[in-house]
Amino acid sequence: MENRKVYLDNHTNLLQLEEHMYPLVDVKTPNVFRNLFHYDEIPKIAFNDRIVPHCMPDEIWITDTTFRDGQQSRAPYSTEQIVTLYDYFHRLGGPKGKIRQCEFFLYSKKDRDAVYKCMERDYKFPEVTSWIRASKKDFQLVKEIGMKETGILVSCSDYHIFYKLKMTRREAMEHYLSIVRECLETGISPRCHLEDITRSDIYGFVIPFCLELMKLMDEYKIPVKIRACDTMGYGVNYPGAVIPRSIPGIIYGLRVHAGVPSELIEFHGHNDFYKAVSNSSTAWLYGACGVNCSLFGIGERTGNTPLEAMVFEYAQLRGTLDGMDTTVITEMADYYEKEIGYRVPSRTPFVGKNFNVTRAGIHADGLLKNEEIYNVFDTDKFLNRPPLVAISNTSGLAGIAHWINTYFKLPDDKKVDKNSELVNAVKDWVDEQYEEGRVTVLTDDELIAVIDQNCKRLGIDLI
Questions:
Q1: pLDDT (tens digit per residue) in 223-264
Q2: Taking a C-beta distance cutoff of 8 angstroms, is the pair 209, 249 a contact?
Q3: Residues in domain Pyruvate carboxyltransferase (predicted)?
Q4: Using an 8 Å Cβ cutoff, are 240 and 40 in contact?
Q5: What's the gap between Cα 54 and its chain centre?
Q6: Which residues of 69-85 are buried (b: 16+ CB within 10 A; e: fewer)?
């Protein structure tokens, strides 16, 4: 104790006692935390009430894996689609580059062509970065393309080290460090993806490994990033939960025990237990500068942290969008539906067709009187999506007029009211539906068809 250094923490302005070193614990049999992860039981969330402090960095940002993890769960994007989406990310991130990086596969010619075309854009942000397995063959691709940075898969739980790689912890660490060193030898900045960190031995492997990575960074004077990958979505944000499931504990451990600077820590979440967004926000709160996302959450199994969700989390936590253009999110959703053929689930927050559509009769009445009552914020301003009222037997002429005006975004000189012939014709059709026994609200497609039919009959042009 008496030999451990006392130093001033620049973030908290408190004197801290230097942590003792964490050597690698090279076990003979894998520690798979069977007390927490008994495969024929639901995983357990245990608590020891060890609380770590919030430590929000001075600057936080978002990185994107739509073209990497996002492509693992759907048909591959074309080169043209990737470049178009990359342009969207550039606009969405704004002049401060809050969408900091886009991550790419390098294995197919199509992906490499997309990388070249995106690099030709010469945007400062998002930076073009790649992902490889921890193999020298994969690393050749990085060198050939001339990447400045690459992600490297470094699986860190004993599930992966013992069962997948068939190695010991020491063998795995030495293998990973050899690839990282090769990266650094050629001047390429490595980003180490600590796969399955929420089932790993944090003090017996993760922190000793990261300490070695920080030594390499000091030796080569090249940044070495750490991506904490909640690969199976086991992470929890509850204060006092035990590691390895505790996201606060993991981020604190990387920062304080392993000495990884906040700007080099990134969190990558999956949504298997519906916690991707809350865990990503927690990573920011406890000291990670970056959170890694995919557009609309599209990714392996249940998907990744939705990028659009973290844009609005950023604004809620910081009190500003810092120049991010959120209207681009709606353009991207339209592009996915019209050009890529992907239909975003209708109730998906911010991007689904019905995310700000009021269906309950009493809610619709309130919305018509003042949209703030039942709309989360000015969705017309931030997403070019005015709130809508779903039409039912209780909507009345005013509700139908509101639906037509907002759905078709009619200018003031073309807006309809309850005296409109078109509105009355639609109201007659709606009444007829419910007189015949209908009990559900009318769908957009049904209303559009009826409105189109009556517009033709009455000679009305809504466009």
A1: 999 999 999 999 999 999 999 999 999 999 999 999 999 999
A2: no
A3: 60-330
A4: no
A5: 21
A6: bbbeeeeebebebbbeb
CA distances 413 to 43, 273, 277, 409, 453, Å, are 59, 49, 42, 11, 22
Phi, psi of 248 (to 5 degrees): -55, -40
Residue type, 41: E
**CA R_g for the chain:** 26
Residue for token digits 């253009």?
Answer: 325
List the one residue out of 368, 355, 420 whose CA is nearest residue 394. 368
Q: Using one digit for the tens of pLDDT, what is the confidence trace for 126-153?
A: 999 999 988 888 888 899 999 999 999 9
Amino acid (1-letter code) at residue 148: K
CA distance 382 to 40: 46
CA-CA distance, 68 to 46, in Å (whole number)? 33
Mean of the pLDDT values across residues 191-213? 98
Return phi, psi of residue 254, to 5°.
-65, -40
* Helices within 73-166 (DSSP H only): 79-93, 109-120, 136-145, 158
Distance in angstroms (rounded) separating the CA atoms of residues 307 and 312: 9
